[in-house]
Amino acid sequence: MRKLSSILLLLFCSFIYAQQEINQYKYIIVPVQFEAFKSPNQYKTSTLIKFLLSEKGMNVVYSDKLPSEIKSNRCLAVVAELVDDSNMFTTKATVVFKDCNSVEIYRTKEGTSKLKEFNASYAEAINDALSSFSTFDYAYNGSSKVSIETVSPVDIVEQAEVKSEAPIKTKDIVTVQEPKLNEVTQVNTTVTTIQKESTTVSHLYAQGITNGYQLVDSTPKIVMKLYKTSQPNIFIGEKENGVSGLLYSVNGAWYFEYYAGEELKKESLNIKF
């Protein structure tokens, strides 16, 4: 019992220390392509991590959309890197935060998933990993005083032009299919707003399927399939025409975000579960 108490105390102290460390930084940079993957935003990993961290109140930006403040001083930001230790049976993902000198300041727990489809399994594993922030209370304290002169000559993140991916006809991972990673709509008001919002469509009715729902209209015709994530208000959405994106709720209203070419769009949906 004493040994268990000591371990729990150590973990708690470690978490508090990590929170204090991250609170020193004004921005979190999410690379548009992680080193473990062959293409930008593969399995929608970049947009999912950005979305989940933004929900915690963090000021998250993509590596190809850095504000001038970061360009002047990279040490105002930490980079969220994704470590992929997956094998043929289990998807394993850990999010590691590093400062401008590539020094690790925090590492989440290892999230896991045994789902067979890659998009869904990475969604589940990343959500599991970032559950380490379930009690995290981010508040920038402005204490980062590191000078840009200390930055390594190697760029913190690799700039990458996001190319479109072919629609995936199975459980498509959380968020949007992105030819270019612009800002994704966030619940937090500090994030860039969506470019366009379409009008509300007619009522859709949710019917249960494996791992989610299918939305049908009054015809009835299947309009979209939804796949569950670890967050009850976030679904992977895939329309029957192959368009995939993120379905989420804010104050009881449901919204679907997706990319049409390089334009990020947002639809308001009336869904009856």
UniProtKB/TrEMBL annotation:
Organism: Cellulophaga tyrosinoxydans
Protein name, per record: Uncharacterized protein
Lineage: superkingdom: Bacteria
UniProt keyword annotation of Signal present: yes
Keywords tagged on the record: Signal
The UniProt record lists the keyword Signal: yes
Secretion signal, residue range per the UniProt entry: 1-18
